[in-house]
């Protein structure tokens, strides 16, 4: 084959591959929305209580569970990952400790979420005696998302120009003051973008939470010790057990609602990210 | 530094160090607890664990047989299937968005890939269950559940990982490589095949290995389409289980040795993940030496 012909064929093949990827994404989104969005936005579904055996149930307790779990998880993992990121980027010298930390963060990131689920069930649900509860789910999810949050926070901290720190230190500020008043505020947009992505992951998580936070509830959980049923896990449960006659409608609606939530969070993350990018470029022009 | 750190600075430093060590502590605890819970299965089942005989006994767990080989086979089989479909598609998409597509289209597809990565696995599973499984059933005249459905679902799930990381590897190549090759009169395809892909080989390999890790660990989406049979599968249309799908299916009703056998599979998953991460470290370490 002539090189020119081969080149043309290859170009067509790559356009096809790119097209397939986009096609798969669009097909999934359109299918899920097409089948479930009307149910998802129906007030009786959105604000109704779920049924255990009958048809006509809604998902309000599941939505509340998801939001509650997300809030609790962030409350636990944000301080830890921020502190860890500050330590790695501002305080630690590269050595055995930082190597060990990085290796463990990489390992955590590569563990399947079902392994976190097994761990959370043993330690939090059974060993600590918390039972299926929001708090058990939140601790499990917090450990699961520690790597993502730590990495994105560390990256944001590292992208703050060194001159900022030098200026602050030369004015007589201590290291901690510099971190708190100069470095952290400049890194905030990046940390926020990373947090939004993590929120998206928590909302979509199911394998790690079904046997820690819970699978099914009829009432809205109020205390962190209450059993919950985050939407993603409930979708799986409703489909697998198929105890309700209209599980297809519930799962279609739940899937569309879940996808809508995840897409909204992703768009928000991108907006913040873009804002951050623009600011960084402006900062670079100044220097 | 000449100036001694004040007491407060020292306390802050220590506090941050403790927070940073949470990750080390978590990994150790996870390993410890999963291992501890697998002990009853390992000591009572011994070599039975490595058979395909999975006959749990719910009322008297100790009387059951818990061989996990069929599910290990299921994990390997579906992961390979997912890789065969997903890896070339992911790498091809990465080449497309970095070298072929106009910048606007490439950027849009990159964002689409990020979105795909964010779609929860229950949604992909539900999609597979309601569209893929009936379609496969129509084509093959079987139930539609099984290795083939799981492989396609996994391909969709690893696609964003492989594509995004491969694209990053291709983007980080120095532009001189492409320029030199094109200046020598090579066509774009020759440049991609003979210069760019070999140069980005390690990064693409890492992307593929991490995609594989995702496939091995994927639970819900696979559980919804793989059929959850206890038998070993040798063909694409047979129903079977993976280790992850077995764990999530049986977790609710298991006690005693039965439950412990599920943790033993969790331990295998944990060790597999560790091996992959060591593999990734080895691949990237080579790069630094060179």
Give a concise summary.
The complex is a heterodimer of chains A (287) and B (290). Chain A is mainly α. Chain A has helices at residues 3-40, 43-46, 60-91, 96-110, 113-127, 134-158, 162-170, 175-204, 231-241, 247-286.
Annotated CATH homologous superfamily of chain B: MetI-like
Architecture of chain A in CATH?
Orthogonal Bundle
Q: How much is the radius of gyration of chain B in Å?
A: 23 Å
**Main sheet properties of chain B:** 2 strands, antiparallel
> Structural class of the helices, strands and pairings of chain A?
mainly alpha
**What's the β-strand tally of chain A?**
0
Low-confidence stretches of chain B: none
- Helix percentage range of chain B: over 70%
- Main sheet attributes: strand count, strand direction, barrel closure of chain A: none
Number of helices of chain B: 11
The assembly state of the depicted protein chains is: heterodimer
Strand content of chain A: under 5%
Mean pLDDT across all amino acids of chain A: 92
Number of domains of chain B: 1
Query: How would you classify the helix and strand content of chain B by structural class?
Result: mainly alpha
Please give the count of helices of chain A.
10
What does this structure look like?
The complex is a heterodimer of chains A (about 290) and B (about 290). Chain A has helices at about 5-40, 45, 60-90, 95-110, 115-125, 135-160, 160-170, 175-205, 230-240, 245-285. Chain A is mainly α. Chain A has a single domain, classed as MetI-like (MetI-like fold, Orthogonal Bundle), CATH 1.10.3720.10. The model of chain A has no long low-confidence stretch (mean pLDDT about 90). By secondary structure, chain B is mostly helical. Chain B has one domain: MetI-like (MetI-like fold, Orthogonal Bundle). Chain B is built from eleven helices and two strands. Chain B has a two-stranded antiparallel sheet. In chain B, helix 4 (about 120-140) crosses helix 5 (about 145-170) and helix 5 runs antiparallel to helix 8. The longest helix of chain B has about 40 residues, at about 5-45. The model of chain B has no long low-confidence stretch (mean pLDDT about 90). The chains are: A mainly alpha (about 290), B mainly alpha (about 290). The interface between A and B is large, with 87 and 90 residues.
């Amino acid at each position: 084959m002539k090189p020119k012909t081969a080149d043309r064929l290859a170009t067509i093949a790559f356009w096809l591959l790119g097209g397939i990827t986009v096609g798969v994404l669009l097909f999934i989104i359109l299918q899920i929305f097409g089948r479930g969005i009307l149910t998802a936005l129906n007030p009786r579904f959105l604000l109704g209580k779920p049924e255990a055996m009958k048809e006509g149930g809604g998902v309000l307790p599941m939505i509340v569970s998801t939001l509650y779990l997300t809030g609790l998880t962030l409350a636990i993992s944000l301080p830890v990952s921020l502190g860890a990121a500050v330590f790695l980027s501002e305080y630690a010298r590269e050595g055995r400790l930082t190597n060990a930390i990085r290796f463990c963060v990489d390992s955590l990131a590569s563990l399947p979420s079902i392994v976190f689920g097994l761990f959370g069930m043993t330690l939090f649900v059974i060993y600590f005696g918390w039972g299926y509860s929001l708090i058990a789910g939140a601790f499990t999810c917090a450990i699961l998302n520690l790597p993502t949050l730590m990495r994105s926070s560390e990256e944001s901290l590292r992208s703050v120009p060194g001159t900022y720190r030098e200026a602050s230190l030369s004015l007589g500020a201590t290291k901690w003051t510099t971190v708190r008043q100069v470095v952290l505020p400049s890194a905030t947009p990046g940390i926020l973008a990373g947090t939004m992505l993590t929120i998206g992951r928590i909302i979509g998580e199911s394998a790690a939470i079904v046997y820690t936070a819970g699978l099914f509830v009829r009432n809205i959980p109020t205390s962190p010790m209450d059993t919950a049923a985050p939407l993603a896990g409930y979708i799986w449960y409703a489909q697998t057990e198929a105890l309700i006659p209209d599980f297809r409608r519930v799962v279609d609606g739940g899937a569309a609602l879940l996808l809508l939530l995840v897409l909204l969070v992703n768009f928000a993350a991108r907006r913040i990210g873009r804002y951050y990018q623009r600011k960084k470029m402006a900062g670079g022009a100044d220097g | 530094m000449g100036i001694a750190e004040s007491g407060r600075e020292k306390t802050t430093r220590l506090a941050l160090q403790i927070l940073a060590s949470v990750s080390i502590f978590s990994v150790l605890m996870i390993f410890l607890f999963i291992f501890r819970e697998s002990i009853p299965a390992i000591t009572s089942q011994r070599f039975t664990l490595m058979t395909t005989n999975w006959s749990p006994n719910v009322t008297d767990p100790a009387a059951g047989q818990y061989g996990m080989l069929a599910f290990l086979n299921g994990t390997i089989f579906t992961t390979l299937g997912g890789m065969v479909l997903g890896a070339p598609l992911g790498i091809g998409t990465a080449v497309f968005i970095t070298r072929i597509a106009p910048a606007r289209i490439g950027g849009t597809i990159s964002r689409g890939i990020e979105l795909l990565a964010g779609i929860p696995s229950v949604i992909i599973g539900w999609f597979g269950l309601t569209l893929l499984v009936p379609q496969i059933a129509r084509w093959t005249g079987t139930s539609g559940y099984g290795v083939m459905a799981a492989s396609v679902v996994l391909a969709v799930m690893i696609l964003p990982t492989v594509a995004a990381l491969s694209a990053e590897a291709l983007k980080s190549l120095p532009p001189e490589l492409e320029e030199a090759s094109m200046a020598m009169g090579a066509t774009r395809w020759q440049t991609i095949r003979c210069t760019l892909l070999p140069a980005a080989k390690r990064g693409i390999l890492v992307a593929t290995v991490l995609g594989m890790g995702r496939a091995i660990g994927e639970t819900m989406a696979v559980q919804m389409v793989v059929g959850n049979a206890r038998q070993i599968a040798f063909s694409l249309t047979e129903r079977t289980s993976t280790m992850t799908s077995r764990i999530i299916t049986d977790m609710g009703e298991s006690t005693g040795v039965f439950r412990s056998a599920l943790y033993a599979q969790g331990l295998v998953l944990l060790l597999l993940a560790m091996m992959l991460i060591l593999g990734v470290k080895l691949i990237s370490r080579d790069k630094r030496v060179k």
